[in-house]
């Protein structure tokens, strides 16, 4: 990839990375979806770079966003977004959203678009995370050109974790498995000159057994309810083990 400055861009080899997923990963090649472009967004020919508010006359008259071409309903997924220019302005965000998430706010609405409602979850470069119209402090702000924000979406456990320059920032959100809808990578910006590039992408896909166990486990309020299910003893044991191992309970980060 090349940025508008013409600087060559390279991606690291997978075997040289410590990825957050424990299981074997497969590379992905999704891009920004050209079918959902909104005013204020422009894509590179390869659709892996997005430029915001490029009109030299209008500049920015609101908040624009774009989503990825692939949504995720199962499995673990990790991707990286690189800031080709220093983030600035009221809001530049990285996150995820459903197919119903808002992609644009015009009429000079300069807002934190990702997380303004219950259809999206976002991290602002100013260090806060947003969902359902509310925010909380999550990390220190980042202003540097070349900052890489990693996104680890675990649809099996329903968690979303962000990374900065491959260092985990901790759990941002939990309970995303309740959404029961594909979640798409998203970015948004209010600022002219914002340039964001899709970098490394990897996924792990669960087996059919793991998907069934995950669905059952998330449907049960308590582990001891497993004994009431009309299932073979071996399956009940697997389900108990899965629920005990995979259970997530983190205060302050539920959907």
From TrEMBL:
Keywords: Nucleus. CDD domains: SPRY_SOCS3. Residues 10-207 form the B30.2/SPRY domain. Its main location: nucleus. It holds the Pfam family SPRY. GO terms for cellular component: nucleus; SCF ubiquitin ligase complex. Belongs to the SPSB family. This is SPRY domain-containing SOCS box protein 3. It comes from Xenopus laevis. The lineage of its organism: Eukaryota, Metazoa, Chordata, Craniata, Vertebrata.
């Amino acid at each position: 990839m090349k940025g508008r400055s013409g600087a060559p861009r390279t991606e690291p080899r997978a075997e040289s990375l410590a990825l957050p997923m424990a299981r074997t990963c497969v590379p992905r090649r999704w891009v920004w979806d050209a079918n959902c472009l909104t005013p204020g967004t422009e894509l590179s020919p390869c659709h892996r770079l997005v430029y915001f508010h490029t009109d030299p006359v209008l500049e920015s008259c609101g908040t624009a966003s774009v989503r990825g071409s692939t949504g995720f309903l199962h499995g673990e997924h990790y991707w990286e977004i690189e800031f080709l220019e220093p983030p600035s302005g009221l809001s530049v965000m990285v996150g995820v959203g459903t197919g119903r998430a808002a992609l644009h706010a015009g009429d000079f609405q300069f807002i934190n678009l990702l997380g303004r409602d219950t259809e999206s979850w976002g991290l602002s470069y100013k260090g806060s995370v947003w969902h359902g119209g509310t925010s909380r402090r999550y990390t220190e702000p980042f202003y540097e050109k070349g900052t890489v924000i990693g996104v680890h979406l675990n649809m099996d456990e329903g968690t979303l974790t962000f990374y900065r320059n491959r260092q985990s920032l901790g759990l941002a959100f939990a309970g995303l498995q309740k959404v029961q809808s594909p979640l798409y990578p998203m970015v948004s910006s209010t600022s002219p000159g914002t340039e964001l590039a899709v970098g490394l992408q990897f996924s792990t896909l669960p087996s059919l057994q793991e998907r069934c166990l995950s669905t059952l486990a998330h449907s049960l309020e308590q582990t001891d309810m497993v004994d009431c299910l009309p299932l073979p003893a071996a399956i009940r044991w697997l389900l108990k083990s899965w629920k005990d191992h995979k259970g997530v309970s983190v205060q302050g980060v539920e959907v």
